[in-house]
Structures are given as C-alpha cells and as structure tokens.
Amino acid sequence: MSVRFLHTADLHLGSRMNSLEDRAGDFRETLLRSFENLLDLATKLDVSLLLIAGDFIEMNEIKDREIQRIAELLCRERSFYVLLAAGNHDPYTAASAYAEQLNDIAGFHIFSAETVERVDFPELDLSIYGTSFASLYQSETMLPLPEKVTRIFTALDGQIIVTENDHVGQNKVGLIHGTLLSGSASASREDEVYNPIYDSHCKLLPFSYLALGHIHKPSVLPELPTIDNKTIALYPGSPQGISFNEQNERHALLVELEEGKIINIKPVNTADRLFIDLTVDILKEDSDLMIQRKITQAAQQRTGNHYARHAYRITLQGECPEGFDSKSITHALIDQFAYIKIKDRLKLPIDLAELRLENTLQGRFIDNLMTQYEATDEPIERADIMRAIRIGLEAFAGEILYNVD
Ligand SMILES: [Mn+2]
Fold first, then answer.
1. CA angle, 126 as apex, 122 and 131 as ends, to 5°?
2. In terms of Cα–Cα distance, which of 207, 59, 55, 198 is closest to 130?
3. pTM score, two decimals?
4. Where are the alpha helices (DSSP H) in 234-376?
5. Residue 362's Cα: distance from chain center in Å?
6. Could you give the CA distance from residue 138 to residue 159 in angstroms, rounded to a whole number?
7. pLDDT at 85 (0 to 100)
8. What are residue 253's phi and psi, to 5 degrees?
9. Cα(357) to centroid of ligand 1, in Å?
10. Nearest CA among 250, 383, 382 for reference residue 315
11. Of 32, 162, 188, 278, which has the fewest beta carbons less than 10 angstroms from its beta carbon?
12. Are 382 and 373 spatial neighbours (Cβ–Cβ below 8 Å)?
C-alpha cells in the first residue's frame, strides 16, 4: 500500500511584505490565499496529509484577524490531515497562536516544542516524527529521533488523539525546521543558530524521508529509485515568493512512499504571483511608447496572458535615448502591473572619455563624476552616477532640470 503526502514550508503567512511599498497589501492577500490554495491542491491531488515544516506564520507580524482566517480554513471539512513542526519565525510558545487560536482543530496537529512526538496512521502504514522550535534560536541540533519520542498519537477518522498503543508504520517520515549543513558535527558550524543538521548524520536516520523547512530555495531532487536506504532530506522551498529574493515558479513536493521506500517525488507549482527580473534592450531612437511596449512584451513572453498579476523588476540596458526619464515609464506602466520597478542601466551614446577632457565647466563636471564612477565597483552606485551625468548633460544642453529624488 502506498501513501502520498504534500510537503511544504516557509509560507510566512501574515508577513507585512514592506519591500513592496504601496502594493504590499495586495501581496499580503496573495500570501494568505496561498495557504488556501495549498489546501485546495491537497484535495485535488487526493493526498492523505499536508506536512508543513515550519515558518508557517510570521508570528511577530501577523494580525489576529489573519490568524482567525487561517483557523477558519483549517476548520473546513477536508479529506487529509495537516501536521506542522514550528520554526524560528513561528516558535511554539505558550503565548503563540499555536497554543491559543490554532489549538485543538480536528485533524490538525502541531508538534510539541518540549519533546519529540510521533503520530501513527495505522490505515496508511505510516508514522510521522516531529518536534517544534521553542524560541527564535536553536543552536544545538534538534532531530525528531524515535528514541526521544515521549508522546504518541493515533490518527483515525479525521481525528488525531493521544494513545498508548504502538502502531509504528513501515513508512517513517521526520518533520523538522532547520539548516542542513554538509559535513559532520565534528566540523560543526558554531554560528549556525537555526538548528544545524549535518547531512552525514541525517542520511542515517531511520526515516525514508525527512521533510525540512527553513531554506526558501528548493533542494535539488534525487534520482529515483535510490540504490541505498539512506534518508532523503529535502526542502520544498517557499510555496509563494515574498520578495524578489524568491523568484519564478515555487513548489510544494508531492511525495509517495511504499513499504518504507520513496517511490515518487514530484514538484507541484504553487505560486499564484511570481517575482520576476527581466532585462529589456533599449535603442537610442526608442520613443517612450516603444519602451513601454518592449517592457509589456517581455513580461508577456515570460508569463503569458496573465502577465499583469506578477511583480517585475525591469532592467533597461543599451543606449539611452535623448531626454529619457525612467520615472515617466514607471508612471505609465504602474497601473498595468501588480508591481513594477525599473532599473535604469542605460549608457549614454556619447564619448565620455573625450568629453571629460574638455576645459569647460561641463568637462570638469563629467571628469569629476567619472572619477567617482571609476572608484566604485557597486553597480547601483555606478548606475546612479551615470544618471547624474545624464541629467547634468541635459542641464548643460539647456533642457529642463528634473526633480531628482
Ligand atoms: Mn526559518
């Protein structure tokens, strides 16, 4: 008999997403909805469980009404169990939502932070071992080892209840939040304060699968079937990006076990809105409308018909058209995209090396800024200096000065 579950982590529900400025509210809604989408996905895929490996909630930022909404979603009728091991952004303390509003929901289990617990699923030949973060930091390795289990639960008919009975399944899975480090504990990283887990140790655990959370970048999936019987430990990555650090498609992992072996691992798309960096080539004869069109086309090419609902950072490169101002392009496009930021990396179509030698005020001005330009390797600083040169040159040419902010 095989068992299938969906593994996710690092949703950070309730995160304020302030980097998105005035569009933050819109994306906060997307983030909350991402949990609803995961529940719908679990139903659609007909899995037996949804495992959440920590940082489910951004505990310091989430509002009470948002917790209430999560509780309501979890209380809805569903055909699968939800198990959670809390992480460093949502430690399971007595004052947390886990001990209060989210406590005691049928078929939803939050692993204790004081001990290792095991939940047995006799009908699925499965046991899940887990433990939660108790505070923001966990410098010592914490693993849900079977010998440390002090509390056992049985999951039956949609309920998870404490039991004394042993129903250990052949399929064993660990659920934990932490940092997977290559090497052994003897080469320990003392600066790692988010539950250092050494891969040499974790491979030898008595689990078929260790469901991890913490690292938002998904693990590279192993080739199946694996030849040895070592534990496979994977991060699914965050299911919905919360900034441009988490770009492109995001996934949850659909895992299938049979007789204590992993028979299938598949990434399933989960992100409703994507964060995308695009580069657009500009020619010096391009008009503002042409530049707008190029940006829209690039977005459409990357994400298709629903391109407008995603967040973009557009880098413009090439030669700068005369009088070009990236702000007017941003203003023209701002209502068309959920979020857009334009990075102006355009170069002047003139020979600055020659101009800086001129014995004029303009020559001195360019020489001064070019000296600063050459003294830095910072791309952002260099782009700012280039913009300053452009604005200055236009002022020298008698054009209207921009409001620079
Ligand atoms: Mn974390």
1. 115
2. 207
3. 0.87
4. 288-303, 326-333, 352-355, 361-374
5. 47
6. 31
7. 98
8. -105, 130
9. 54
10. 383
11. 162
12. yes
Taking the centre of ligand 1 as the mean of its atom positions, its distance from the CA of residue 215, in whole angstroms, is 7
- The tokens describing 115, both together, are 């001990």
How far is 296 from 318, CA to CA, in rounded Å? 17
Task: Give residue 138's identity as a one-letter amino acid code.
Answer: Q
Architecture per CATH, domain 2-269, reads as 4-Layer Sandwich (3.60)
- Profile the chain (405 residues) by mean pLDDT over runs of 10 residues: 96 94 93 97 98 97 97 97 98 95 96 96 97 93 93 95 92 96 73 89 90 96 82 96 94 96 95 96 95 97 95 94 91 95 88 90 93 92 88 77 49
Q: Domains of the chain: which residue ranges?
A: 2-269, 275-396
Distances (CA, A) of 91 to 97, 294, 368: 10, 46, 53
Distance 370 CA to ligand 1 centre (A): 43
The whole-angstrom distance between residue 355's C-alpha and the CA centroid of its chain comes to 47
pLDDT of residue 399: 57
Distance 87 CA to ligand 1 centre (A): 6
pLDDT of 204 reads 85
Residue 319 CA to ligand 1 center (angstroms) comes to 43
Is residue 44 a contact partner of residue 79, using CB atoms and an 8 Å limit? no
Question: How many Å lie between the centroid of ligand 1 and the Cα of residue 72?
Answer: 24
What's the confidence (pLDDT) of residue 283?
Answer: 94
298/294 Cα distance (integer angstroms):
6
For residues 268 and 251, is the Cβ–Cβ distance under 8 A?
yes
Burial class (CB in 10 A: 0-12, 13-18, 19+), 390: buried
